[in-house]
C-alpha cells in the first residue's frame, strides 16, 4: 500500500450489447460488452510508480565505475605518473576513425537506444500488473491500495465457474478491459451470458477498482 493524493471519479454505468446466436444451436456463440462505472480518462486515477531500483542501481554503478576510473587516471597523470593505456588507445581511435565508421555508428546507436530507454523509464509509471483500487472518501492523504491483475483474474474466474451451465472459462484482465470467454454445455447461451455479466460485474464492483474496466463476455458451445 502506498500514500495517495486524490480519489478517482466513478461516473454512472453504461451498458450496451451486440447480438449473438441463440442458445438453440449446438455451437452457437453469444457476446455482450458492458462499460463499467469507472470508464473515463486515465488521469482520473493515478497509477503506482515503480521504484526502478534495478535500472537505477545499474546506471549508478556504471557511472561510478567510469568516473572513478577517469578520476584516478587524471590524478595519476597530475602527479607525474604515466597516463593509462586505455586513454592513449581511445585518443588514437577518435583521431583515426571517421564518423561513418561502423564501430562509431554502432556505439552511437547503442547510446541513443539506452538513453531513450532511460527516458521512457523516467516518464512512465511502470507496475502494469498492479491495478489501483478506489478510495471511498475525499481525504487527499488517504492510503491507496492496489491489486495484482493475476489475483483479479483468479477471483473473476472462480465467480464465472460458479454460474450454472459454464463448463470452462478464460478471463483476460487488462488495465482498461476484462474479457471473459466461456463454454456452456447446457442452458440457453443468452441466459448464461446474462448470468456471467451479472456475476462478473458484481465481482468487479466488489474488488473496488479505481477505474472500472470495460467488461466483455462471450459464450459459445464447446466443440464436439
From TrEMBL:
<protein>
    <submittedName>
        <fullName>Putative membrane protein</fullName>
    </submittedName>
</protein>
<feature type="transmembrane region" description="Helical">
    <location>
        <begin position="56"/>
        <end position="75"/>
    </location>
</feature>
<keyword id="KW-1133">Transmembrane helix</keyword>
<feature type="region of interest" description="Disordered">
    <location>
        <begin position="1"/>
        <end position="38"/>
    </location>
</feature>
<dbReference type="InterPro" id="IPR046253">
    <property type="entry name" value="DUF6286"/>
</dbReference>
<keyword id="KW-0812">Transmembrane</keyword>
<keyword id="KW-0472">Membrane</keyword>
<dbReference type="Pfam" id="PF19803">
    <property type="entry name" value="DUF6286"/>
</dbReference>
<feature type="domain" description="DUF6286">
    <location>
        <begin position="113"/>
        <end position="220"/>
    </location>
</feature>
<feature type="transmembrane region" description="Helical">
    <location>
        <begin position="103"/>
        <end position="123"/>
    </location>
</feature>
